[in-house]
Design a protein that fits this description.
Helix content: 25-40%
Distance between the termini: 38 Å
Largest sheet: 3 strands, mixed
Radius of gyration: 20 Å
Shape: globular
Length: 291
């Protein structure tokens, strides 16, 4: 009995991902919902947009928060967020910014402005949720409901836009991924974990969208959190496993995507694996992205 419980307790949960396992308690078989990779399932109410719109959403407050509390760690090279240093005044500023985003008429924005809006909303809300529950060692230690075996805040309604309640999983997997069909979304949204791509040091906007998405992809792929090899084994972030369909769904397509953003040294080390040699392994660090 104890070994089964230990296995279950130590199982990795992935942002709202669901599957069914069975555990025996005192002779009874009990089914439990645990996490598995969320599918991109379009919520078509969010499809409308105005291609001619010149409306620009104000993300100044988010820029200010990032400037004050985002730190590039000299040892790891990763961007960390100083949650414990956020003042009550700046926490209120962040909450006011999120409330302002809730009031935006998203359907009146053009597509690029919409994409920037949803990425910033996801990242700002994630930071706010962590701040509300500090101190924590991992975002998976935060439970906002959703069931006995749910870990993390991703399936809880956290914002209301156009009178519609939304979860973080809704934003990522029912809006961003299916509408834009762009694998770089995985480098843009940040789940407050070391293993996640960097929280960028500036707000996304329609003007900087392409530039920051490209930079985010290069940063992650050329960092050991994203890709690392000893020549025999290629260790990739679990993001490429969990969401393989977004990167082409085959070994060749995933490595081709990585190769596109790899710097010269990494490209050289990738060559044997592109030829089909070597093993692929996946890993992810759920520790909080804090100093």
């Amino acid at each position: 009995m104890s070994s089964l419980l230990d296995i279950f307790a130590n199982r990795d949960n992935i942002c709202g991902m669901k599957s069914i396992i069975f555990i025996v308690f005192f002779g009874f078989v009990v089914s439990a919902t645990v996490t598995s990779a969320p599918q991109a399932e379009l919520w078509d109410v969010w499809l409308p947009y105005d291609a001619e719109s010149r409306i620009e959403v104000d993300h100044t407050a988010w820029d200010t928060i990032l400037e004050r509390y985002l730190i590039t760690d000299d040892r790891s090279g990763a961007n960390l967020f100083a949650y414990s240093r956020v003042t009550s005044e700046d926490k209120s500023t962040l909450e006011t910014y999120i409330r302002a985003l809730e009031d935006v008429a998203v359907e009146r924005l053009n597509r690029d402005e919409q994409m920037a809006y949803w990425i910033n909303m996801y990242n700002a809300v994630t930071v706010a949720v962590v701040l509300d529950h500090m101190p924590v060692k991992s975002i998976r230690d935060i439970s906002l409901g959703g069931g006995l075996f749910t870990r993390g805040p991703w399936d809880a309604a956290v914002v209301t836009v156009n009178e519609t309640s939304l979860t973080l999983n809704d934003i990522e997997h029912r809006i961003l991924r299916p509408i834009w069909d762009d694998p770089r979304i995985h480098y843009a949204v940040n789940c407050a974990s070391i293993g996640c791509p960097n929280l960028q040091g500036e707000a996304f906007t329609a003007r900087n969208l392409e530039q920051v998405l490209e930079r985010a992809a290069r940063e992650y792929i050329n960092h050991e959190r994203g890709v690392e090899t000893d020549g025999r084994t290629l260790r990739l972030s679990s993001i490429y496993d969990w969401f393989s369909e977004d990167f082409g769904d085959t070994r060749e397509a995933i490595l081709g995507h990585i190769y596109r953003y790899a710097e010269a040294d990494l490209r050289e080390r990738l060559a044997p694996f592109l030829a089909g040699d070597g093993r692929l392994r996946y890993r992810y660090d759920w520790a909080l992205n804090a100093p």
